[in-house]
Design goal:
Elements (H helix, E strand, L loop, with lengths): L1 H29 L3 H40 L13 H7 L4 E8 L2 E8 L2 E5 L4 E4 L2 E7 L5 E5 L2
Antiparallel strand pairs: 1-2, 2-3, 4-5, 5-6
């Protein structure tokens, strides 16, 4: 009789542990882990920190080069900084849209066109308007993309 009770208790304990071991695995697969969220946040912070650090290092190196150049020239005056111009003036100067980039991804060719300060991704033969004029993106005989005025 004692053997039957011992065997049934043993089966009950082992069976209970197996069921208990399976339940947390299903729960962990469905919920994001708090440690994973913390890790992602730390990685994003690190990425932004490294980006800012690289920018500052580049600025410091640029200033060092400027000071060395100034010493070589023998001038003690600071270089003249360019004055920012009005964006409308720049847009008026470059009123003709230009092709900037041609990308071929997954068999699809898209062309980046700069028109009046705006950037447009267009396909061959696509029409757009800029500055009150209509344009079309075409390919010339040499395989280069051109923006032509469409009437």
């Amino acid at each position: 009789m004692q053997k039957v009770i011992m065997v049934s208790l043993l089966v009950f304990i082992i069976g209970g542990r197996l069921v208990y071991a399976e339940v947390p695995q299903v729960i962990n697969e469905n919920k994001p882990n708090i440690q994973q969220d913390e890790f992602l946040r730390v990685m994003e912070d690190n990425l932004s920190f490294e980006k800012e650090k690289r920018q500052l290092v580049n600025e410091v190196a640029l200033e060092k080069l400027r000071s060395e150049l100034k010493k070589l020239r023998g001038t003690t005056t600071s270089p003249v900084m360019p004055v920012a111009t009005d964006k409308n003036d720049i847009r008026e100067e470059f009123s003709q849209p230009t092709v900037i980039l041609v990308s071929k991804i997954g068999g699809l060719t898209r062309v980046l066109v700069s028109a009046a300060g705006d950037k447009l991704y267009l396909s061959k033969g696509e029409r757009f308007s800029s500055g009150g004029k209509n344009y079309i993106l075409e390919m010339d005989g040499t395989g280069k993309y051109q923006v032509k005025e469409h009437k």
